[in-house]
Amino acid sequence: MNKKFLVLPLAATMLAASIAGCSNGSSKPAESTAPKGNTAESTASAKKKDPVTLNIRFFGTENGHYRAVDPAFREFEKRTKDTLNTTLNVVWTPPADYGTKHQLWMTSGEDVDLFIPWELNKFAKDGVLADLGKYFNNPQYPGLQKAFSPEYINDNKIFGKTYAIPITNTFMDMEGVIYRKDLLKKYGMKDISSYDDLYNYLEKVKENEKDMVPFGNYGNTAFFKLFTDINAQQLEGKVFPFTGIGNPKKNFVYAQIADDGKSVAGVAALGDPASEWANINPKYGLDYVMNQFNQAKRFNKFIPADTLANPNGLVGKEEKVAAGYVPVGGFKGTADKIKAKNPNAELGFWPIFKNNQELKPGTQSTDGKAWNFIAIPASSKKIDRTMEFLDWIFSNQENNDLFTYGIKGTNWEPVGTNQWKIPDGVDPAKNYGFPGYQLTWNPTLNRMPADLPEQVQKYYEYQFKPDTYKKHVLAGFTFDQEPVKSEIAKCNTVMDKYLPFLLSGFGDVNENLSKMNADLKAAGVDKIKEELKKQINAFLAQKK
Q1: Which residues sit opposite 254 in a β-bridge?
Q2: Which residues is 166 bridged to in the sheet?
Q3: Region 21-25: what's the mean pLDDT?
Q4: What are the residue boundaries of the DUF3502 domain, all occurrences included (predicted)?
Q5: Is 532 contained in some domain?
Q6: Given a cut of 70, is residue 37 above it in pLDDT?
Q7: CATH number at residue 345
Q8: Same domain, 139 and 179
Q9: The pLDDT of residue 450 is above 50
Q10: Rounded average pLDDT over 77-101
Q11: Residue 139 in domain
Q12: Final residue of a domain: which of 443, 470, 497?
């Protein structure tokens, strides 16, 4: 299950309900960095074909993950009646049931042609996924050839094969804090540019705005990724956190790569004694994690006192919050909600990672892997037709827009060459909403929301520039969790118990860490550390 999938349950509890990585509403698009192309049909779909029905499985709940999607699906069928001649049978399964059901689909041989593989590595190992390698970098599928570069496909291979198609529109969604800029001006303060600035601003809110919450908690892990900097940690420090599966805040083991990049210099778990951290750069190891938890303790007075008991208490009350965590992709949705109830509100955005603040190229850490994937069961009898459908989606901006934003003029309108907006008079709560992270996202086909503040627009543009990114030393490595899957499951249960206290700043930091470490030891964390070290060393040894 991919990292962005696992953020999903948290997305419903944060200040911004529409996170770009994996939203609980419609996807939030960003700027395109590629030519829009023409609307000609691809080679794969040029002639009318025999009728076919594709059985597609997405996860989601109506009005939570998708809304009013059928008209766009029928529009696709209408547009391609004389070429692809394809009918879409789309079934949505609630996330709570999807994991179990998609396992049954794979084991029972159910007639499924396209689905979201949450257990990607396991399915690939079990041989239940089709190898789609021949469809990429293939002129017979020009849409796929244009949208999926050989490097992009290679970076996302599983066990050396293309068992799934990478779906992402960028390799980051800039992490930051949204705040009430009008309040900042009221207090005569400058724009937020540091944690001290944020603290001082929240102090003023606490003193002067008795009906407001200074900082809106991100569920029961209130400050989420604040007080961290994963880019500096990986690129400068060569320190890598594992193994929260898909939730980066549940990582509990840290590995230090040697300066020469050829071996593991040290491995430690949260709460381990200082001696275990001795071979890990303290700036990105022990000092780093302790600062994160101590800062959460310092800022604790700005979040609701009942955060742990009532983590969703502020959902739908954004206008009562003076600041909160949000990725830049969720900025506009959150700002719109606040301004709908307080038209005089002015919103600002502060990136929490240094390289994002400076917009420096080559400083965003990446392994080139997508956030999400779609796959085709090996048992499908319609693999060619499914790939022709996908080729159509990625052939040009117009085709992609249909599934991402709905019907042009009805659900959305273009603004300029690379922006979009909801038409005047259309109720966003009833308008088309499709989770693009399950089908349509691609680095070459994006639009940016219209009417963004100038600085926020620059942040969007930055994250869609290829030269923003730099691959880290472990790019290409995937931790095979199978040998320690039982221990990892037990350790994640431990993290569920203690992380809310540590990331929300409740209780004594050292006491919580000590108790958590004892439970991690009992759950088998030392076995995980050894297995991780062995696998990383093997990967680095064969790296060219």
Answers
A1: 241, 268
A2: 373
A3: 35
A4: 474-541
A5: yes
A6: no
A7: 3.40.190.10
A8: no
A9: yes
A10: 97
A11: yes
A12: 470
Q: Are residues 126 and 263 located together in one domain of the fold? A: no
In a domain, 418, yes or no: no
Beta strand ranges found along 287-366 (DSSP E): 323-327, 347-351, 364-366
Co-location of 133 and 263 in the same domain: no
| Secondary-structure breakdown of the chain: helix, strand, coil percentages, each rounded to the nearest 5 | 40, 15, 45
Q: How high is the pLDDT of residue 544? A: 66
Tally the domains of the chain: 3
In which band, very low, low, confident or very high, does the pLDDT at 25 lie, cut at 50, 70 and 90?
very low
**Spatial strand order in the sheet of 347-351:** 323-327, 175-180, 347-351
Indicate whether 9 belongs to any domain.
no
- Tokens at residue 509, please? 């930091």
The Cα 38–Cα 417 span in angstroms is 14
CA–CA dist 345, 180 (Å, integer): 7
What does pTM read for this prediction?
A: 0.84
Whole-number Å distance between alpha carbons of 93 and 55:
13
Q: Which helix (H) or strand (E) holds 115?
A: strand 114-115
* Domain end (from 422, 453, 470): 470
Task: Quote the distance between the C-alpha of residue 203 and its chain's center.
Answer: 31
Per-residue pLDDT averaged across 145-150, rounded? 97
Residues in Cβ contact with 216 at an 8 Å cutoff, skipping those fewer than 6 apart: 14, 15, 303, 314, 318, 321, 323, 324, 325
Say which DSSP state 329 is in.
G
Q: Tell me the one-letter amino acid at 277.
A: W
pLDDT tier at 13 (50, 70, 90 boundaries)? very low
Q: Which one is predicted more confidently, 9 or 393?
A: 393
Q: In which band, very low, low, confident or very high, does the pLDDT at 244 lie, cut at 50, 70 and 90? A: confident
- Predicted pLDDT at 478: 87
Full domain range(s) for residue 106: 34-171+368-404+434-470
**What is the average pLDDT across 23-28?**
33
Confidence of residue 38 (pLDDT cuts 50, 70, 90): very low
> Pairing between strand 52-59 and 114-115?
parallel
Distance CA 511, CA 517 (A): 10
C-alpha span between 149 and 443 (Å, rounded): 10
In which region does residue 498 sit, left (phi positive, over 0), alpha (psi from -120 to 50) or beta (all else)? alpha
Query: What is the pLDDT, as a whole number, of residue 42?
Result: 52
Q: From 109, 156, 167, select the one nearest 133 (Cα to Cα).
A: 156
pLDDT in tens, 188-243: 999 999 999 999 999 999 999 999 999 999 999 999 999 999 999 999 999 999 98
Write out the two tokens for 410: 């009805």
Based on the fold, state whether residues 257 and 323 are members of the same structural domain. no
Q: Which residue has the tokens 């008079």?
A: 425
Helical residues (DSSP H) of 68-160, grouped into ranges:
70-79, 95-108, 120-126, 142-147, 150-155
CA atoms within 13 A on the CB side of 40: 8
- Give the integer Cα–Cα distance in Å for 57 and 66: 13
Selected residue with higher pLDDT from 129 and 28: 129
514, 442: one domain: no
3-state secondary structure of 483: helix
Mean pLDDT, residues 323-334 taken together: 94
Place of tokens 């303060």: 189
Clarify whether residues 117 and 157 are in a common domain. Answer: yes
Are residue 201 and residue 341 in the same domain, yes or no?
A: yes
